Amino acid sequence: MKQNFTVRQGALDGVEAFLSVARHRSFRRAAAELGVTPSAISQAVRVLEERIGAALFTRTTRSVGLTEAGERFLSRAKPAFEELVAASEVARGLGQRPAGLLRLSVPRAIVPILLEPLIASFCKAYPEVEVEIAASKELVDLAAEGFDAGIRLGQFVDADMVAVPMTPPFRLVVVGSPVYLAERGRPERPDDLRQHACLRWRRSNGALALWSFNDNGQAIEIAVAGPLIASDFPTMLGAAIEGLGLALAQLPEPLTADRLKAGNLVHVLESYAPVMPGVFLCYPGRRQIMPKLRAFIDHVKSRTTGDGKVQIQVDAKRAGPRKRG
């Protein structure tokens, strides 16, 4: 059965005064240390003794000593109070400068293509901040799971979140290797994809993602089939280029730019490419943002272009062709 535990109101009142008197064996010196009057110290200790129900000090005109109850109270209260003071200092430090553990929830697919260069530069700029990246396919509840912030595709940012853009909007493009297109021909309309081999994406809920298109302003989705199912963009990019080069893939355009320029991939169905809102750093709206998160937000914003979007170099080379042994 669940029990309710509460701390009595004022349970810590007078403890600091008691500890100071016990340390100095003097009400007058304790008052001087704490910057109050001796009568105020005496009153605080008296209230503490009444609340506890036992005398803590023996007082004479010449000296102050501890009773047995006072000795036992001191042995437990002193380390506990010192720990509370230390805890307050630690918390105060985290509230005054960027330090501590910054926990980020990130889609696994975004880590290699967007986050790594940003995190590297942030860690160099803020050495007192430890960054923990929890990469997964699932969209977790940031507040419930104890995350400071998350990185999300724009369509998955909750309405009650504060969102900071990390990339401009980008197109989802269909690409294929020149070898594939030479053998199978170019699809001219989205419906043509039903006759092509396509690389598919597994969503976090387990469903296979449909391919999305914009047909003269109308959003359409196509169910495709093909030889590979993946859950991250670099795997799909590498498969489209080399491993399963005889297939098409639908990917974020920034990820494909270098390979298109190098001739490893070719655009198809460009006029049907839908525009996605981009990638955002999001966090629960709060009155006070801890300095570690504020520093990360500012770091993201410092990498913006003139249009207010973060300019991050997408590293697609890791998904390029590998040398064969």
CATH level 4 superfamily of the largest domain: Periplasmic binding protein-like II
Termini separation comes to 64 Å
* Major β-sheet strand ordering: 4-3-5-15-6
What do the pLDDT scores average to? Answer: 81
The general outline is rod-shaped
Q: Any idea what the radius of gyration is?
A: 31 Å
Helix percentage range: 25-40%
Give the biggest beta sheet: 5 strands, mixed
Family: Belongs to the LysR transcriptional regulatory family.
Keywords: DNA-binding, Transcription, Transcription regulation
Protein name: LysR family transcriptional regulator
Pfam family, one: LysR_substrate
List keywords for this structure.
single chain; 325 residues; alpha+beta; Arc Repressor Mutant, subunit A; D-Maltodextrin-Binding Protein, domain 2; 3 domains; five-stranded mixed β-sheet; four-stranded antiparallel β-sheet; 9 helices; 15 strands; 36% helix; rod-shaped; disordered N terminus; disordered C terminus
Brief overview, please?
The chain is α+β, with helices and mostly antiparallel strands. Helices cover 36% and strands 23% of the residues. It folds into three domains: 15-94, Arc Repressor Mutant, subunit A; 100-169 and 278-319, D-Maltodextrin-Binding Protein, domain 2 (3-Layer(aba) Sandwich); 170-276, D-Maltodextrin-Binding Protein, domain 2 (3-Layer(aba) Sandwich), CATH 3.40.190.290.
Task: Give a structural overview.
With 325 residues, this protein is of the alpha+beta class. It folds into 3 domains: 15-94, Orthogonal Bundle (Arc Repressor Mutant, subunit A), CATH 1.10.10; 100-169 and 278-319, D-Maltodextrin-Binding Protein, domain 2 (3-Layer(aba) Sandwich), CATH 3.40.190; 170-276, D-Maltodextrin-Binding Protein, domain 2 (3-Layer(aba) Sandwich). Helices cover 36% and strands 23% of the residues. The protein contains 9 helices and 15 strands. The chain has helices at residues 15-24, 27-34, 38-52, 68-96, 110-125, 178-184, 233-243, 253-262, 291-302; strands at 57-59, 64-66, 100-107, 129-136, 149-153, 161-165, 170-176, 197-201, 211-215, 218-222, 225-230, 248-252, 266-268, 275-276, 279-284. A 5-stranded mixed β-sheet has the order 4-3-5-15-6, covered by helices on one side. A hairpin with a 2-residue loop joins strand 9 (211-215) and strand 10. Helix 1 crosses helix 3 (38-52). The longest helix has 29 residues, at 68-96. It is rod-shaped and about 105 Å long. It starts with 14 loop residues before the first helix and ends in a 23-residue tail after the last helix. The relative contact order is 0.14. Residues 1-9 and 305-325 have low confidence and may be disordered.
